[in-house]
Amino acid sequence: MTYNSPQVEAYMVLGQELFRRIYADAGPEELHHWLREQLHKLSAGDPEARLLWEQTFETYDTIIQERAAQSSLPEAERRVLTWPWPSWNAVLDPLDPGLLAVLSAADGGGKTMYAENLAEHWAYSGLNVVFIHFELNRSLMLDRRMARQANIPRRDLKTGLLTPEQEQAYHAANERLRQWPGSITYVHTPGWTMEKAMTEVQALTAAGICDVFIIDYLEKAMPSERQLKTYGSNPFAREADAVETVKRTAEAIERPALLLAQLNKSAKQANFEDLDRSGIRGAGEKTEKANIVILLHRDGSENPVINVKIDKNTMGRCGNFQQYMHGARFLITDIQRNGA
Fold this sequence. Notes:
Blueprint: H1 5-23, H2 28-42, H3 53-71, H4 86-89, E1 100-105, H5 111-124, E2 128-133, H6 138-150, H7 154-159, H8 164-178, E3 183-188, H9 194-206, E4 212-216, H10 225-231, H11 235-253, E5 257-262, H12 265-268, H13 285-288, E6 292-297, E7 305-313, E8 319-326, E9 331-334
Parallel strand pairs: 1-5, 1-6, 2-3, 2-4, 4-5
Antiparallel strand pairs: 6-7, 7-8, 8-9
Helix pairs in contact: 1-2, 9-11, 10-11
């Protein structure tokens, strides 16, 4: 919370008056009653948070005008958080500021791969992405990006010994990436709490390089001292509190967030038809805070077909569809149907 000068002055006056009453030997009950009354007056309301009925009309006119101006721009200049795939765009609207989308899958289900594809699509579209990665290190993240963009197997990239054709593809990919109008800032956060990660997101937003942020993934964040004191040994309660921290940050900085999360054991073994957001580990408070919940399911670790379920969408409809995972390239594409 940010305090302005009148608020600070009011608290200083309150403190001075409290000391005066203590030195005047006021009784504990009298002090308690007086202090409760004064604190209630100071926190009675926040006029800046209110939107009065008559104000709604002018406010909404401004919103519509801004949207019209955005829509009239060339597509490359709109800076809209669309999705990389027609299958997703057919169901989901672009992400609005402050919204939280949760993407969940089992281990090896493609969560990080989806997040990487989304981040690069948004950067290509002119947006600045912050990618918080608790697990994968920088070299692996960049290997996967190059495998995607240059079609060079990661095993070859790990040796550093590239063929002339691969060298050409490598440099061409880097040159192409440098021309993108947006960017991705990778923040490696092993051992960080979610509060520390969100402080970094706020700093990058203030620096003008955060239009959307991605967190990979929720369960890898370390509990803070506050969470341990409040929730003790209950990891689900701590994780739900971390989701609330992400949601509050997204709303405060007016940036959308994509949060990756794990499925629980029973959901990992469930059929796709039976899978829903209750299968997310410690679901309930986690998914209640999300505006969009997307679930991924594969029939076996070797199956390249991914079943996608939009299980919650407060902005519109839900739906199911299939996509294809190109594992060697860390690339997700829609499945091309004959005659489509």
